[in-house]
Specification:
about 50% helix; about 325 residues; three-stranded antiparallel beta sheet; mainly alpha; about 5% strand; globular; single chain
């Protein structure tokens, strides 16, 4: 059961109105799904979202794009590395009411890592909601752990300091973009080992031109390869350094009367061409954006046909 409440105003707000349909639907899932809690801050990985049938067909890249759109629109704040997600206005629309709810909310807050970029904002908003509940309550008992120990923020001095405290340099935007999608790769890769090395190798692979989608799809193929022996599974950083995503498992020869893998793939894509030409979105949406882009690149369908059919891009 979720603590979330969905107000009619959700669909009428300027924030939601400016989002794509996918981002708006994912936002609705975040505020009303089973993972949502009393403070609107929880840990949810991309894999947990794609496990939901409604979002699985988007693929990891599609879900990542929708999350990024929600973050850029100010609907959520999210730490992509850990999956911690904060619905920015959750406590505004679903405030704390009563001592028991406050005690539960404090317990949730104290479990959240303090190094998250939105930790102080959540602390401020939750404190305001608790104080409002406290003012309305006839009886009140201060929850254990509240008020929160918020570190003081140094104020700038009116006089120049001879030795200013050096601030850490912000991470270049390019580096942040290159790391995007690592979490999804890590979830599907069959061996969890040397994560720092794997992250470094992942960034190097992305810098060399590999996309999030092809790396993750390659990891899934490697995981599901019937010829892979668990005891000989490559460590993730070695697999990435060797461009493992570009390797294809050997296909067993087809049985008599059975189509080969290439023939099956050709038939599968031919069905997608038919669905686009006949404007059958219920069929076209069962395919990935990569499949559609492949057909566009080969000239088998046009951009106009894809848009008219409502196929994923």
């Amino acid at each position: 059961m979720s603590y979330g409440k969905v107000h009619d105003a959700y669909w009428e707000s300027e924030t939601i109105d400016s989002l794509s349909d996918r981002a708006a639907l994912l936002g609705l899932f975040l505020i009303s799904g089973k993972h949502r809690n009393a403070i609107g801050c929880f840990k949810i990985g991309i894999g947990a979202i794609t496990d939901e049938p409604r979002f699985g067909k988007w693929g990891i890249e599609g879900v990542s794009n929708a999350l990024r759109e929600l973050s850029e629109g100010g609907f959520i704040a999210r730490d992509d590395r850990t999956g911690w997600t904060f619905i920015v206005n959750a406590l505004k629309h679903d405030p704390i009411k009563g001592y028991k709810a406050a005690a539960h909310a404090v317990g949730l807050f104290l479990a959240i890592p303090k190094n998250l970029s939105f930790h102080s904002e959540l602390s401020r908003k939750l404190s305001a909601s608790i104080e409002a509940a406290k003012a309305e309550a006839k009886e009140w008992k201060e929850p254990k752990g509240y008020p929160f120990d918020t570190p003081s923020i140094p104020q700038p001095s009116p006089l120049p300091s001879p030795e200013p405290y050096p601030l850490p340099e912000p991470q270049p935007p390019a580096a942040r973009n290159l790391e995007e999608g690592f979490e999804g790769f890590w979830e599907v890769y069959p061996l969890k080992a040397d994560e720092p090395k794997a992250r470094k190798a992942y960034i190097a692979a992305r810098k060399a031109g590999a996309s999030v989608e092809e790396i993750t799809a390659g990891a899934v193929r490697y995981r599901d390869d019937p010829g892979r022996k668990p005891e000989f599974t490559q460590k993730p950083h070695n697999w990435l350094a060797g461009k493992g995503w570009s390797a294809r498992p050997a296909e067993p020869p087809p049985k008599p009367g059975e189509l080969s893998a290439d023939e099956k793939e050709a038939n599968r894509l031919a069905t997608l061409v038919w669905a686009i030409e006949q404007k059958k979105p219920n069929i076209a949406n069962n395919y990935s954006p990569a499949d559609v882009r492949k057909l566009i690149a080969s000239g088998r369908v046009s951009q106009e046909q894809v848009r008219a059919a409502g196929a994923p891009t």
